[in-house]
Amino acid sequence: MSSTVSTSRGLLPPARIGTCETPNAGPSGSFSQPELEFNHTDDTELLSVSWNQDYGCFAAGTSRGFRIYNCDPFKETFRRDLKSGGFKIVEMLFRCNILALVGGGANSQYPPNKVMIWDDHQSRCIGEFAFRSEVRAVKLRRDRIVVVLEHKIYVYNFMDLKLLHQIETLANPRGLCCLSHHSNAFVLACPGLQRGQVRIEHFGLNMTKLIQAHDSQIACLTLTMDGLLLATASTKGTLIRLFNTMDGSRLQEVRRGGNRAEIYSIALSPNVQWLAASSDKGTVHIFSLRVRVVGEDSSAQSNAAQGLAMLQQNSSTALDALISPNTGANPGSSLSFMRGVLPKYFSSEWSFAQFHLPEDTQFISAFGSQNTVVIVGMDGSFYRCSFDPVHGGEMLQQEYVRFLKTERGLDRDVLIA
């Protein structure tokens, strides 16, 4: 596998950008600069939706460009309607003007094997990566660009686009990969080389950890912002597991259901008290976690280094500090007293709260503020709902928006409890 990187000066000031190629790189063409247009038609197709790194915004890739939306309060912040086609991947870098774009859609002029680094402030491409196979995903940190192909992952330095790491994976058509986002801890999680295996790269510690998370292939995974905890689901879709990324130990297991399902997204709340999962069964499940809070939203980053050092020094005994006594918030089977006698299904932890959605649409979910969950669907819908942190049960819909509109106006339905 080879790739080519081309850049222009001024990617991220004050760095100066040169040209860098990976070994055995071949020739690469350039992206043409997108031509803006005013789209007044109603045939715009939604190709993808994705959260930014703190889940405060999401990007929508369309057949005619891309759009960015703020979640709280909900509003479209900007859009780019292009004459030259659309994008199947739109990856934000928090809330700044830099995005990673990969072409997609029937009439797109941008090939699916190239990544364009787009500066929306300058309205131009400031760098690109070209590969010999289709790009499955792109992930951004403030200091790294990660490009995911079906069998390989490339990690580049953001300032000069130099290739730093290459990782071989099992076939990964979903483009599964996630990163930590604290500046003092760079952790990457991706499929390993065996079915059900997750590879954890602690780049700051120069350490690789392999976790046999499931018997079936990995379908979904996510890390906490500090990279200390990993949540996974398999293609079977019945169980979600939480792991310590330092020693690979399993911390908790919760059950989405008894029947096979496709898990679309897993999200962890900033304080690691809750986990949300969406699937093709049309339900977003909320689970209570038994992991102790390392730090609340504002202080989590300063405490992440302490937690990482603690686990590095003695991960076996330090594990006790990550686990809280089971509060019993997640309901279990009425036959759970026969644990070890009946099949494992009967002793499972079930979801604490639920929200029901159309079954024929793919949704991704994340946590908002004050016990709320935000949900974005491939049908162009946005939901905000709240859950009772004490009693759980059915969540309450607070807001519903049809955001994929050709005009700036939005169809909105706000429900205040």
Key structural traits:
five-stranded antiparallel β-sheet, WD40/YVTN_repeat-like_dom_sf, 31 strands, five-stranded mixed β-sheet, Methylamine Dehydrogenase, Chain H, globular, mainly beta, 417 residues, WD repeat, Autophagy-related protein 18c
Structure overview:
- By secondary structure, this protein is mostly beta strands.
- Helices cover 4% and strands 42% of the residues.
- The protein has helices at 300-313, 315-318, and strands at residues 3-7, 46-51, 57-62, 65-71, 74-81, 86-92, 98-104, 114-119, 124-131, 137-140, 144-148, 152-157, 163-168, 178-179, 187-191, 197-202, 207-212, 218-223, 229-234, 239-244, 250-255, 263-268, 274-279, 283-288, 353-356, 363-367, 372-377, 381-386, 393-394, 396-402, 411-414.
- Among the domains are: 46-138; 178-291 and 343-416, 7 Propeller (Methylamine Dehydrogenase, Chain H).
- Strands 1-9-8-7-6 form a five-stranded antiparallel beta sheet, with no helix packed on it. A five-stranded mixed beta sheet has the order 22-23-24-25-29, with no helix packed on it. Strands 26-27-28-30-31 form a five-stranded antiparallel beta sheet, with no helix packed on it.
